[in-house]
Amino acid sequence: MKNSAGVYLACNQAYKDYVGLSDEHIIGKTDFDIFSHDEAELFEEQDKRILKEGKPLVIKQWGTYALSGNRVFFDVIKAPVRTPDGELVGVLGIGRDITRRKEDEEKLELAALVYRNSSEAILISNADNHILAVNPAFEKITGYTAAEVIGRDPKLLSSGRQDKAFYKAMWDALDEKGYWRGELWNRRKNGESYASWLTINVVYNEDRSVRYYVELSNDFTEKKEAEDMIWRQANFDFLTNLPNRRMLMDRMKQELVKVNQSGKKLALLFLDLDNFKDINDTLGHDAGDHLLLDVAKRLKDCVREFDTVSRLGGDEFAIILTELSDLPTMEKIAHSILRSLAQPYQLGSEIAYVTGSIGITVYPDDGTDIDTLMRNADQALYAAKLAGRNRMSYFTASMQAAAQNRIRLANDMRIAINEHQFEMLYQPIVEIETGRIQKAEALIRWHHPVRGIISPTEFIFIAEETGQILTISDWAFGEVARELSRWREHLFPDLQISFNISPIVFQNKNDYSDWFEVLEKLNVPGSSIVMEITEGVLIVSNTQVLDRLAEFHQYGMEVALDDFGTGYSSLSYLKKFPIDYLKIDQAFVRHIENEPKDMALCEAIIVMAHKLDMKVIAEGVQDDGQRLLLAGAGCNYGQGYLFSEPLTAAEFEKLLESNRLER
Ligand code: C2E
Ligand code: MG
Ligand code: MG
Asked: Is the pTM of this model over 0.70?
């Protein structure tokens, strides 16, 4: 309390604590003795105003405890003090510390700010689960206005994607721990689902009963979809949606643990389509994709629901058959897969036929770790392909040996040319009527320093796999040209030699000028060479094949279609390509004496070939009966052990000589 001149008359302890002074430093003094000059001037001005107007003043202001330096917020009332007869004698001031309240207010303001501006949806509901309030972000994310949801149950957002157990776990957590946090799918007003991260906190009353549930949630659908997509791309095949190699490995790990516990077996199957490339090349990639989708579906239909079908890439699939109590079950499934795959495929307006080969390895019988099992299945698949496709093959120890053998042969082959280990043999091709040698087929042999003579059926495909076939073919062609030039000059000017050209060479060698040059240097005309191609070559990319064949023809060479009857035997393509000779495969010739159907086929092939202006060479003629039948059917040439086995150059030369004498 101050008098009208601003001099302190009295104060209480709280005031003394605030200014940090004792009575004698306050009473009888003015504000100018106690506060800073600025503050004192402010107070003086307030006091003067009160005395002048005769009315109390309410002021809110910050102050600082002189000793502790604590900031406080005061709610101050200053009132004029009068004597009983109404004379103004001074000013009484009462200040209340309302710092706490002030802080609470600020917090509330801040909370409101957050609440309004948050990008997270906020929903507050009461203990009965009625929505009390939602913020603007909630309205934006869900599409509901506050008015539409207040009073309703938050359930209205549920998308139905989570099951009862999910919500039960959530409520259990809320009851027990007072909060829950997790990911879930909600539904917007427009029916769209969205992924959200939800945090629910329970706010309690003093008696620990529930007062509010406060839910914070966001919409991370886009992020979630992006994450899902990345995960899918990493683990699933884009085209078929089947697990990819990586996912297959994961599943293998899991399944191996399971079968270890159950004591059952697991089979890993590798599957490869036998002629997928042809489909792709002839009908286009769209058709190829359709076929793969169809294959994926057929595979899934053949296995049990807990088995895994995965696509490793291209036309390669892997299948895990798990929890097998016996192997016949597995065998049944593998057979049904082969049968199912061999059914015709409707690709747009075309019908395609494809078969599959399967390699099988069994855990734990053949191996106990994933790498070994994968390698085994691969080797078994290889064996199935070699054995003639459209079949399955089990992994055996001998397969492993064969795989190692292939690797070894591929290595040994590198030096074989330089070490002169290859030799060309010549098998005569005779006019079937007269038995006269008109041509010969050049057939390669490998004199392996350790393993002796290796047949081309054993090493050509390895050379094709490693690409060494290109160099070997160059060597072989040069060799043949050299012999040809000698024989034509000295023994038989019209001699023709058939040269087997590997499909790999045919598809990859784009320039034959080096071969043509070899012939030119030796003065050998192109017409003395017959290029033997196989049917597979003709199915693949027509224009390129046509160009190549045209090039051969331009150079005077002739073309023979080898092994006719064993491949696609699609007669329709024959008229599309300029082919001079058809070689009926020995598989047909072998049985013509006692298989009327084979004989009929041979006759039909011969008639058709002649109609298309082609001559026919029968392969594998081994006895006179066959020769007579073929001659009767009008076959032009024969080749086989009946006439001669493949001969060395020297032997063939001798034979040619005696043949010449006969002429
Ligand atoms: P191919 O072109 O069909 O050759 C005919 C095969 O039948 C030859 O086997 C020949 O020895 C064999 N053969 C001939 N007459 C008879 C017979 O009366 N009975 C039986 N059972 N077989 C007979 P070879 O020499 O083992 O060659 C096998 C295959 O290897 C050839 O089949 C050919 O596709 C390929 N080949 C051979 N030499 C070469 C070559 O220099 N380059 C390429 N790319 N492939 C070659
Ligand atoms: Mg041949
Ligand atoms: Mg042949």
From this structure: no
